Each structure stands twice: as structure tokens, then as C-alpha cells.
Amino acid sequence: MRYGIGVDLGGTSIKMGLFTGNGDIVDSWSIKTDVSDNGKNILIDIAKSVSVKLAMKGIDKKQVDGLGIGVPGAVSRGIVDKCINIGWDKVDIVKELEPLCGIKVYADNDANTAALGEYKCGTGADYDGIVFLTLGTGVGGGIIYDGKIIQGFSGYGGEVGHIKVNYDETEPCNCGTCGCLEQYASSTGIRRMALRRLSKGDEESSLRSYGEELTTKDIFIEAEENGDKVANEVIDYAMEMLARACADICHVVNVEAVIIGGGVANAGDFLLDKLRKEFERKVKYIAGDTKICLASLGERAGIYGAFYLTKM
């Protein structure tokens, strides 16, 4: 029996999956991300955890064809440029991790690997080309066309969260510029807009009762279940910005489907209906042809996609 391993490296936890050679998942587990000392122990911890799991399963490393890993940063030729939330600067993941775990290593950006997971095993399996957007604390993205990840020459392909969608914005994004998609369509962005809206007026809104404890989930609940005007207008604007970015991307790469994942996507059809409506307003030649769908793999997309890196 042949095997492969998928690793999804996050700022708080590292998810891992053991797969058969044909992509059936055997086991999945996670460990805490040790960000101390600028994350110097992260790759060591991954190698140790993989070795322990293989030993528990009675699997020799010679039976493992490869280990794929998705990391929160731009990756080119196995080298990540920077991973701010785990303390890494430039790290040659392949060169450092291979000798630690004794397995062939393949690395890419975590949004790219999640996109690949959805493309191979999730909603994207029905399409030849997809744009995958993950709406969480930030906005990540990946573009898969004809079975290949569009990485770009330095690994920044698919970095859709920093498409500029509002030239009138005065507050800076965490990247330093103003008006990025991430400032509107992420969970932090939607919450930011709601709090800003409430602070600038005295209009009635059920959102006021939450105070500073307001979450994006609360905003969606008040919009959908209670019909709150402010909540709906904030979400409508977020979907307008998201639709603007999706339309621009699709006019360039002309994929068959845009797939939405991440925590914000838990709003389901309520979010999707608003996004589709705005998207149709902003496209011309591809109107009606490009599908807007929800991701189906959830948090497992990353480990599935990381495994499939070993097959590319």
C-alpha cells in the first residue's frame, strides 16, 4: 500500500491527514502551532508528529510517496517569502523539512492548497477551472485552471484579498494600502464596517445591543433572522465589493466557477444569494455562465489539497 500526507499550517494549529495513494483519507489529527522563537520549532514538530503517526499505523516511510504542506505565505520553488502570523521570514520549507521527516516534501500557499482540495474532492470537482476564495480573518484565494495552480512567477498568484476595490477608503489594510477586498469581505472587515457605521450615526439597529462584542456571525443573524436594516446594508456592501473582485478576476481567467469558503461562508445561501445578485450586475460576457458556489470540504480542504500537491 502506498500513502501520502497532507499538512495545513495555520497560526494556531497544524492540521494533518494521512491518505492512501489514491486519495482516501486514513486518519486526520492536529497539533498546536508553536510560534515561540519565530516559529523555529514548527517544522521539527511536524516531522515528529508525522513520524509518530506512521509508527502507530505500522507504516514504513518508504511507503509514503510524499508530504504536501500549505503555509500562510507566498511560496515559490519550495521557499516561502514570509509568514507574518507564525514569525517566519524567508524559509526553504522543502530543504529544511525533507531531512527532518525523511519524506519527499512539496509546498505551496495555504489558500492554493485549499483551492486544490476543493478542486479535486469538493465542489470544484465538477469544473475544469475555479477561483476559490476563503473568507475568514482575511481573504485568501487560489486559482486552478486545467488542473494546475496559477502561482505566478514569485508565488503571489491568486492573492485576491489585496485586490483594490475601493479607491475612496482612508483606513489602511494590514498590508499598508487602502481599499483592499480583505477590508470588506473578511469577517474582520464586515465587523469593522458595521462598527464604523454605528459610530457615525444614531439610527436604530439591533446591532447596538452587542457593543464591542459584536461578531460577524451576529451581523448575519440580525440581517437574516431579524431583518435589521443596518446589518443588511453592511452585508450588501461587503457582497458588492466581493462581487466586484470576482467579476474582475473572472473577466481575466474566465473560469467556470467561483467557490466561496471560510468562516463567513457559513452564512450559506443568504450570503450566496446576495453575492450572485451583485455578480450578475457586474459581468457582461460571462453572465449566466460562471457559477457561484459554496465550498464543501470545510476545514479539511487544506489537508486534501496538500496531499494532492504530491500528485502534481
What are the defining features of this structure?
alpha/beta, 10 helices, five-stranded mixed β-sheet, 312 residues
Write up this protein:
Helices cover 37% and strands 21% of the residues. The protein starts with a strand and ends with a helix. A hairpin with a 4-residue loop joins strand 2 (13-20) and strand 3 (25-32). The protein is built from 10 helices and 13 strands.
List the helices and strands and how they pair.
Layout: E1 3-9, E2 13-20, E3 25-32, H1 36-39, H2 42-57, E4 64-71, E5 75-76, E6 79-80, E7 91-92, H3 93-101, E8 105-109, H4 110-121, E9 129-135, E10 139-145, E11 148-149, H5 182-185, H6 187-199, H7 216-224, H8 229-253, E12 257-261, H9 269-282, E13 291-294, H10 301-309
Helix pairs in contact: 2-3, 4-10, 6-8, 7-8, 8-9
